[in-house]
Structure prediction request, 583 residues.
Amino acid sequence: MPMILLKCDKDIPEREKHIYLKAPDEDTREYLPLSNAATIPGTLSERGCAFCGAKLVIGGVLKDTIQMIHGPIGCAYDTWHTKRYPSDNGHFQMKYVWSTDMKESHIVFGGDKRLEKSMHEAFDEMPNIKRMIVYTTCPTALIGDDVKAVAKRVMEKRPDVDVFTVECPGFSGVSQSKGHHVLNIGWVNEKVGGVEPKITKQYTMNFIGDYNIQGDTQLLQTYWDRLGIQVIGHFTGNANYDDLRGMHRAQLNVVNCARSAGYIANELKKQYGIPRLDIDSWGFNYMAEGIRKICGFFGIEDRGEALIADEYAKWKSKLDWYKERLAGTRMAIWTGGPRLWHWTKSVEDDLGVKVVAMSSKFGHEEDFEKVIARGQEGTYYIDDGNELEFFEIIELVKPDVIFTGPRVGELVKKLHIPYVNGHAYHNGPYMGFEGFVNLARDMYNAVSNPLRRLAGVDIRQSPAAATKGAA
Amino acid sequence: MSEKIDALYGYVQERCLWQFASRVWDRKANIEGTIALGTALLLGETPTVTTPAERCYLVDAKVMVSDFRSRFPWLRDCSPEEIKALMAELQAKLTDIAITKSQNHELTHELY
Prediction:
């Protein structure tokens, strides 16, 4: 089956290069959706901007760091509180938002002084906080504000603070993905190696590409503690700024989200000789496999097997309860990129769920190679899907549940299709053994909820008939 | 022979992230390193690894071989020569899809 041109795309035929329907005996040598390419004018893309990829996804997770956003207030507000990554530092990073609140006059006359003033104000207001990331945005990048020079001046006046600058305005890339890249490379080149971590255990690793969504990091940390492995840098879930300056001392880089953070793992391999081990942290089978690999690397296989046995004893029967009820469920995954390939086999193997359509906002061709290798025939693989395409795909594949973000989620709810928050979760964590039971529970609750049937009934005609059978 | 190779290849495509590294050079290193150690394990050898990178290949190979043995019981009846031939062909097929004929335009990027 060649690439697909949907009916709704008849006026933007370029979209055909981005949508693939997998057929028997085909593979990625023949068909690979074009991705990480500029959004075609005229499509209602669901993508975010490059700044968002740096701030919302990675930098903003740090629990001890002021996130100074040098730009209009909207850039700060729209990347605040839209993703749920708690911390054990009183959720500092979620409580506050910082902005230089640039107005027209500052654009005309330059924003350097305003940025410097804002940085001092923020440090003065929060005297216990000594770390800051400064982000440029579209307008402050366009007018050429020299944020590195400002950061240098502030650090000279305040010797106890450290500032990292991310020059990644929204327009600098085609999607969030550019922001991931810029932050990764900037961090490894400018900050890694700046702090010598205290080594407390024989076995050390960095855990890369996990952002503590609803406690993912904190759940996985219980495993590493039980295994006797010290995580030097958790990039960036529940992490401190200085933890990540010591990443060069780890013996192993374990990578979960290869799209948002594969770059730093690659650079740590190249610059410091730390090997990269890619794992999947979602799903029973995958999590067990990941633990086996990590423990195998350190030669502590027995500890790994004991942990897996404990977790299976605690959670497997619960997972199976949901599997019995979810088998055959048709699922669509419309998220960022890696969750497509992390989830498609794990929900199939662990829950008996069939994934019928997947759409990626910012995945690269590498992500599509992975997901097409793992995904089923008859499934749609879409890059940078737009709203009309989502409607048409729903008609084609009739999903029972869609894992996506709240924006698209509210859209599909109006079609009486339940959605589960695939970005920030409904009731996570979703990683690890316990986490995958949570995912199964949220999926079960979504597809079993009688409200979705009731919502589709016009009660003006026959209220009694409408509610019959819903209980 | 062909069906056996397809079974091994299907497993690796579906399960193994190490074939999908970022660049041609690290895909090549991962595929060659993991298949070489996997072959040794299937032959009943105890491979010696010295570098951190080789330790990664070994843990990936161990999981792969363990799954091969549980999913494909016919491997028990294969001679050492047949195992070597199967794994060599597996490596060739993985190299073909992940490197030689990959449509991933980033594989030859100059950075990293």
